[in-house]
Amino acid sequence: xxxxxxxxxxxxxxxxxxxxxxxxxxxxxxxxxxxxxxxxxxxxxxxxxxxxxxxxxxxxxxxxxxxxxxxxxxxxxxxxxxxxxxxxxxxxxxxxxxxxxxxxxxxxxxxxxxxxxxxxxxxxxxxxxxxxxxxxxxxxxxxxxxxxxxxxxxxxxxxxxxxxxxxxxxxxxxxxxxxxxxxxxxxxxxxxxxxxxxxxxxxxxxxxxxxxxxxxxxxxxxxxxxxxxxxxxxxxxxxxxxxxxxxxxxxxxxxxxxxxxxxxxxxxxxxxxxxxxxxxxxxxxxxxxxxxxxxxxxxxxxxxxxxxxxxxxxxxx
Length: 317
Fold this sequence. Notes:
Blueprint: H1 2-8, H2 39-74, H3 97-127, H4 133-146, H5 150-165, H6 170-194, H7 198-206, H8 211-239, H9 243-248, H10 270-278, H11 283-316
Helix pairs in contact: 2-11, 3-6, 3-8, 4-6, 5-6, 6-8, 7-8, 8-11, 10-11
């Protein structure tokens, strides 16, 4: 029997009957130790150190910008900048409360437009047949829009809304931002829906649910963390855009609800305020531009962190 086992397993050295055989008896463990004398180990160490150095080098500009914003913007950061209006030239003090409000309103309008369209389009793309020409065309258009220059979205909204209604407005700014948000939401939501296990869909249909009930009660709730991740990333991108708002919302030194809440008038935003004040020769306005940049970066950072939290939750589930 021992001879037969040895024939069937030529790598195992036969031993006395009833005695355990050490399968690593012929292995020289000293040869497995890490040594820089071996070319493979040396190359691995050099490449690992090179990648680490490049990573640190890539982080230098990011931390440099953040530290500069904290140093220049943190000096003027106070409660007054959130409640006061932008100052005139040669005027001291002031703030950008109207710009924060305008940014939030235009991003909210863009979300109201892009989120329903994006999610409904994602449901169609996820449920469509792979050979569907319409689904392929929509998916291709969404991928093209992800690299769409933001200024072109502003020019489009300017030609369609600003010229049509005869003035700059928060509505036009929201439409321009929604064009930039839509592809991110659509593609992210489609991927999230596709990641839902097929057995959950099959179980729902097996229990007698219609395709519509399966979509609204099974697919969308399960894919919601991934969908929310895409929404947060799209909002973070829209909040920092400047070029589309220059063509659509322009800017205003007054509150949006001056004389009644009206979104059909020029509206201030943090990005355009930074653009306007950064090139001014007045120190007070330049300082406010640094503070506004710090606030905008913090808003975008918080939004991205929320998106990452939703993404991490989806991975854990």
